[in-house]
Amino acid sequence: MLKDEDLTSLIVGMNLGMAKHTNFKLYIGKLHQVLNNFIQNNSTTAIFDEIARRAFVNNAFDGALTLLGILMGNIILGELHPKTVISTGFSACLAMGMSGAFGRYFSERAERKRVLRQMESYMFTDLSGSILEQDSKKKVILISLVDGLSPALAAAVPLIPFLLAQAMILPVGASIIASFALDFSVLFILGVFLGRMSGENTLLHGSLMIVVGFITACVIFLSSLFF
């Protein structure tokens, strides 16, 4: 049989437990609101995060070097007809674009879903339809587009002279020179972009990118002497 003081202690304990539970729910609700407000106020700038910047540079660099390899291969084989270069070049652009976009989409979506599920377990709440989830979806789509478009565009730019040669506007010899010039220009611009990102010498970074392209072309040429 409970004594009066035992009953009083039990009631006080229950009230304290309810109060703690209520305060905890209020704390979680407040935390959820703060996080939502933060994402809402910073979503337009946060979307252009470092992952998208790295994806842009890395994949554009891949696209420019891939097209440089195609140009060198066509020169070594003597296949300099504009239609041949355009076909192989745009096939590579399409393959890199599709691979970059869909590969990044599925991997980034899975990773951000995992992070969102972790946040739900920490916050004891369902984030489906929340601003957090919506912002995560926007980032996945944006990064996928960057990953897909950057290599395709970087590789497509040097093909413009061959399109002009195909239309009989530019001689084939001039289109080859112009294509190499555009490819190395893309590499230089990427280097300048990296220099600005790091706050370092932009001309130095641009020049280093050109050196990498030149080394790549030399390696391709030298390898053709042995195979």
Mean pLDDT across all residues, rounded? Answer: 78
Uncertain residue ranges: 1-21
User: Would you count the extended β strands for me?
Assistant: 0
The SSE string, one letter per element, is HHHHHHH
Strand content: under 5%
* Tally of distinct domains: 1
Integer-rounded radius of gyration: 28 Å
Describe the largest sheet. none
Structural class: mainly alpha
What does the model show?
Mean pLDDT is 78; it is low at 1-21. The protein is mostly helical and 227 residues long. It has one domain. The chain is elongated. Helix 2 (50-77) packs parallel to helix 4 and helix 5 runs antiparallel to helix 6. It has helices spanning 4-46, 50-77, 82-123, 131-156, 160-166, 172-198, 202-224.
Helix-strand layout with pairing:
Elements: H1 4-46, H2 50-77, H3 82-123, H4 131-156, H5 160-166, H6 172-198, H7 202-224
Helix pairs in contact: 2-3, 2-4, 2-6, 2-7, 3-4, 3-5, 5-6, 6-7
For this entry, give a set of tags.
227 residues; mainly alpha; 7 helices; 86% helix; elongated
Brief digest:
The protein has 227 residues and is an all-alpha fold. Helix content is 86%, strand content 0%.
